[in-house]
Amino acid sequence: MSAANPGATSPQTVHVPLGDRSYDISIGNGNLAEVGRWVTSLRKVTHVVLISDGNVAKYYQQPVEDAIAAEGIRVTSLGVPAGEQSKSVPTAQSLWEAALADRVDRKSTVVALGGGVVGDLAGFVAATMTRGLDFFQIPTSLLAQVDSSVGGKVGINLPSAKNIVGAFWQPKGVLIDTAVLKTLPRREYLSGLAEVIKYGVILDADFFAYLEANVQPMLNRDPAVLQKIIARSCELKAQVVAEDETETTGLRAILNYGHTFCHALETVSGYGEYLHGEAVSVGMLCASRLGEKLGVFDAESTQRQAKLLSALELPVATPKLSETAILSAMQRDKKVEHGKLRFIVPHAIGKVVLTPDVPSEMALAAWREGIEDESA
Amino acid sequence: MSAANPGATSPQTVHVPLGDRSYDISIGNGNLAEVGRWVTSLRKVTHVVLISDGNVAKYYQQPVEDAIAAEGIRVTSLGVPAGEQSKSVPTAQSLWEAALADRVDRKSTVVALGGGVVGDLAGFVAATMTRGLDFFQIPTSLLAQVDSSVGGKVGINLPSAKNIVGAFWQPKGVLIDTAVLKTLPRREYLSGLAEVIKYGVILDADFFAYLEANVQPMLNRDPAVLQKIIARSCELKAQVVAEDETETTGLRAILNYGHTFCHALETVSGYGEYLHGEAVSVGMLCASRLGEKLGVFDAESTQRQAKLLSALELPVATPKLSETAILSAMQRDKKVEHGKLRFIVPHAIGKVVLTPDVPSEMALAAWREGIEDESA
Ligand SMILES: NC(=O)c1ccc[n+]([C@@H]2O[C@H](COP(=O)([O-])OP(=O)(O)OC[C@H]3O[C@@H](n4cnc5c(N)ncnc54)[C@H](O)[C@@H]3O)[C@@H](O)[C@H]2O)c1
Ligand SMILES: NC(=O)c1ccc[n+]([C@@H]2O[C@H](COP(=O)([O-])OP(=O)(O)OC[C@H]3O[C@@H](n4cnc5c(N)ncnc54)[C@H](O)[C@@H]3O)[C@@H](O)[C@H]2O)c1
Ligand SMILES: [Zn+2]
Ligand SMILES: [Zn+2]
């Protein structure tokens, strides 16, 4: 489990087992150059609609377009502005219309090149254009590589609710190139690491220990360590998704560890103040303290998480915000049923439990005790 | 196969066999009154989003709402303007937002009450709201009862293309009440009969003969005959759909008998000039004459169709329109591949064959010979 020599890294594959919707995630360092051959190895493709955002297109659109075109495939490149606002009905409509104007048909394939915003949006366009087009993902943010590109959730926002319009639409393949993370802004990169740590806490204590042992290579974006943590994160998410593809059994809920506090924090602080992974960082520690209060989790394990998150420059302190606002945001969160609060509570590093009927005063206390670095 | 006494009609069920997406179509006379019990017999439902258009809501929204509410189900009634323009992105957006404003969640159920426009639109909203809601159809036009409510195609239009954005989203059940056809405008009703006749020509010679023998009861909207022809149409469409649910094998294409000519006619005459079934009527006769020219179909069978369509007050003559425009519309039709014209050509009443590589001059001749009642 030690960091290998970057030069020695060879590409690897994570299989996502979903019956006739199964597919592979190909992870490597520099494999973006092979995107054309990768696409044609998976499907007979004659026309690609390539969707990207401005920040990503600047670096990667031309090489991807060229590599795909080199296989004799016609490419329609469409761009959207970077940022969450592009996950909207008007942007989806502009993509539908632009694809149609360039002769999209039922045999066309959509390729998403970008972070979670582009993946969710392009996936929704793929799911709905001519009642469903083949879809490939090339996630370029760490968050997209370890989280949003796995699991088949695609969608857009309405002004009053995130991800409320969408579909389950699995890609035919996902290509992850760790080298593209070089251009990802540092804060975005660190934010993605919070979700990586989450997988360790919810499912894999060894993986958590590996992360603790590799803080410096992670900060340096060492390719071998990146490949290792991305592949393991994808494997763990794929396992959960395979057991509950369309979120009907409730098993998929464990992926929301830390996320009830996180969503409340994002809502009350105003979207944009915290990056998602930063709010996850704070939220996981709240959930851990809640575990302590419920008598199922020990303080040392909370401290281990706080130490790792801090070392990766993620926020660990709860900010001072109105408790009434936090509580009402948690009550509106989708993990609340019939007015009672439900949390994913850790029992040990590597094990979490969906816990209904948590008293709201106890949840607020777990929140409050994180203020002013009390948790560090 | 003779027309039964209306009083003697008992409800019947057509099963649509689609693996774990199978469902039943319940057909009766006056069964709308039982919609509440019907819904609860199929699923545990606590919240219904009922979508209808102005024309249909006027007669049927209140009784349906009351019957559903009587089962202790919360109902959110949403209305859209009648007409094809409602199958649009802005209307879908307004429905998503209105449903959300009235607390839609993943356990809500969408019920479409209306013609094909409402069915396609509400189905698309169901397919996409919170990544997919349960969906029930109560088709109220004859076209919706025999065609659009069977098969799971849902969707909306873009300004430049019909049905281009959508999904395959099967309902959990379809309820058909022949009594609601009483209020359907006569021209809409007759238009729906063209699709009924289409099923006879493509798949069932006995059914075609039954239609020939029951012109007067059909014109009178006799409930027993209506139930018979609707049930048989649903059965035949369900058979085809079951073999090619997502239109991948090409088998589903036979449902497009008459439709290449029909779409060209609709496009060139300007949408709204012909109702869809009226254009299907003209189109089926063009396809039949094409069959004669190809030496696979006999003139008497073309005449039988023309006589039946005429008796049901459907147009049989080709209108005078630019042949260049008709040809280019046919070439853009989705049944054209690689520039060659493909048609569903009848070989006998009850049997059609997908025929590629039809010379465009022959297709135009089949069109032209219908001008000025030459076919009657
Ligand atoms: N579908 C799912 O299961 C799922 C799961 C988690 C999150 N999400 C969604 O993902 C979105 C967030 O994803 P995100 O954090 O990737 O946001 P993002 O897509 O906005 O990317 C973050 C920023 O980094 C830029 N960027 C991405 N890759 C880059 C690269 N290689 N070099 C330079 N810049 C790059 C983007 O342009 C953007 O400015 C949210 O909309 C969220 O709802 C979806
Ligand atoms: N999904 C499919 O497989 C499929 C198949 C064929 C057609 N379609 C779609 O169906 C649509 C056409 O359907 P349509 O012909 O039902 O059109 P429609 O829904 O517009 O209905 C026709 C008219 O009849 C009115 N109406 C319907 N039922 C009535 C009733 N019982 N009493 C009084 N008025 C009533 C409507 O308000 C409308 O004015 C098109 O958009 C077409 O694309 C879909
Ligand atoms: Zn998250
Ligand atoms: Zn039709």
From TrEMBL, chains A, B:
The keyword Cell division does not apply. Its EC number is 4.2.3.4. Transmembrane segments: none annotated. Keywords: Amino-acid biosynthesis, Aromatic amino acid biosynthesis, Cobalt, Cytoplasm, Lyase, Metal-binding, NAD, Nucleotide-binding, Zinc. Binds 1 divalent metal cation per subunit. Can use either Co(2+) or Zn(2+). One of its GO terms (cellular component) is cytoplasm. Residues 80-189 form the 3-dehydroquinate synthase N-terminal domain. This is 3-dehydroquinate synthase. Pathway: Metabolic intermediate biosynthesis; chorismate biosynthesis; chorismate from D-erythrose 4-phosphate and phosphoenolpyruvate: step 2/7. Residues 192-336 form the 3-dehydroquinate synthase C-terminal domain. NAD(+) binds at residues 116-120, 140-141, 153, 162. Zn(2+) binds at residues 195, 259, 276. It is an enzyme of class 4 (lyase). Belongs to the sugar phosphate cyclases superfamily. Dehydroquinate synthase family. The lineage of its organism: Bacteria, Pseudomonadati, Planctomycetota, Planctomycetia, Pirellulales. It catalyses: 7-phospho-2-dehydro-3-deoxy-D-arabino-heptonate = 3-dehydroquinate + phosphate. Its cofactor is Co(2+); Zn(2+); NAD(+). Catalyzes the conversion of 3-deoxy-D-arabino-heptulosonate 7-phosphate (DAHP) to dehydroquinate (DHQ). NCBIfam families: aroB (TIGR01357). It holds the Pfam family DHQ_synthase. GO terms for molecular function: 3-dehydroquinate synthase activity; metal ion binding; nucleotide binding. The keyword Cell division does not apply. GO terms for biological process: amino acid biosynthetic process; aromatic amino acid family biosynthetic process; chorismate biosynthetic process. It is found in: Cytoplasm.
